[in-house]
Amino acid sequence: MNIHETTIPGVLRIELEVKANPDGWFKENFHRERLAALGLEVVQHNVAYFATPAIVRGIHAEPWDKYLSPSSGRVFVALADLRANDTFGRVETFELGTSDALFVPRGVGNSFCTVAAHTTYNFLVNELWSPERITVDLFDPELHIDWPYERARLSYTERDAGNPPLAELRTQLRV
């Protein structure tokens, strides 16, 4: 496991060792002690499967830390710092395959877009799920997210389409 800091404080990009074998590959995706050393005591593991590319979700900042990693396919991930601090609104993007993971602290908005068919995305979290979250518009021009597909091709939920702009959250947080 190789860990790299990013431009958003607390967000870590993690390279996982994937070992090829005659049947495919093997990776150690979860190791309690290693994740605990990052501050993540896992209490829930969620798995989402997406059959097609161009499915997008987010931007959501929940009240828990997350460890994200695909076990099949690829995803484009856009993170936005939504915490009331001097990096508020900072965005960083990544493309993750099976040998990649991200540690995302609470308060940092997470969004992703599938870029391969048959993508399985794992979310490990350190709090049980709750509906509480902060959201921001996926397509807010202030964020400058260069999605891998044109908006007309993307599939997203009505709920995500109605997220407020970053300026509204800035006003609420008085940043």
From TrEMBL:
Q: Which family does it belong to?
A: Belongs to the dTDP-4-dehydrorhamnose 3,5-epimerase family.
**InterPro entries cross-referenced by the UniProt entry:** RmlC-like, RmlC-like_jellyroll, RmlC_Cupin_sf
Task: Read off the Pfam families from this record.
Answer: dTDP_sugar_isom
| Protein's organism | Kribbella hippodromi
What's the protein here called?
Answer: dTDP-4-dehydrorhamnose 3,5-epimerase
- Check the UniProt entry and state the signal peptide residues, or none: none
